[in-house]
Design brief:
The chain has 204 residues and is an alpha/beta fold. The radius of gyration is 20 Å and the shape is globular.
Length: 204
């Protein structure tokens, strides 16, 4: 006669992550992927599509949404050039800290000025943290039709001013790591192109 003994499950170790977080893969390096482009270009939609795919692959992912940052981290800032730069640098610092600690950070934020974006790149370079710049190059004519937040309509009606790409400057990247023309392909195709870039760079 064979006796079968069932041993009780071992108690969780102090500091152990609860499920499902414990299943998230930490074997990949962290990185920041900054998606720059005009309002309503599709930056956040692409980032969320990619984030969902990466989470299904058990990656540690965060999306730093520009509206949420403005509400909780940069509520004291306006939209002057100096304030826009300060906002971008705050986001860049948060992204770099997360990425340096193994999180893949997607940042769908306009960041209209080249010098601001380059300062963020330099911050990442200083800590040898991977950083990719993606230009979601949707034409302003297409963005104004999408007008997800109604900004273009408000600007046209004279209710607001300083809209990036209309009556405020936008300096498009000269040599981004990837240029996505979201108006010529689906959201899934755009996210797949970015996923392919991450794979090519050893980040996915």
């Amino acid at each position: 006669m064979t006796l079968v003994t069932t041993l009780p499950a071992a108690p969780p170790q102090p500091g152990a992550l609860p499920q499902p977080e414990a299943r998230l893969c930490t074997c990949w390096p962290g990185a920041t992927v900054w998606l720059t482009g005009l309002p309503s270009a599709g930056k956040t939609t692409i980032a969320e599509e990619l984030a969902g795919r990466l989470r299904r692959e058990h990656r540690r992912v965060e999306v730093l949404d520009g509206d949420q940052i403005r509400k909780f981290l940069s509520a004291d800032l306006g939209f002057s050039r100096d304030d826009r730069n300060t906002n971008v640098q705050r986001i860049g610092m948060v992204a770099e800290v997360l990425a340096r600690n193994g999180v893949l950070v997607l940042v769908p934020v306009i960041a209209p000025f080249t010098d601001s974006r380059e300062a963020v790149r330099a911050r990442h370079r200083a800590t040898a943290t991977p950083y990719l710049e993606v230009h979601v190059a949707t034409p302003v004519e297409v963005c104004s039709v999408r007008d997800v937040k109604g900004l273009y309509a408000k600007q046209a009606a004279g209710e607001i001013s300083g809209l990036t790409g209309v009556d405020d400057p936008y300096e498009a990247p000269d040599s981004p790591d990837l240029r996505i023309e979201s108006h010529t392909q689906t959201v899934r195709e755009s996210a797949s192109a970015l996923h392919a870039l991450l794979t090519e760079r050893g980040l996915a």
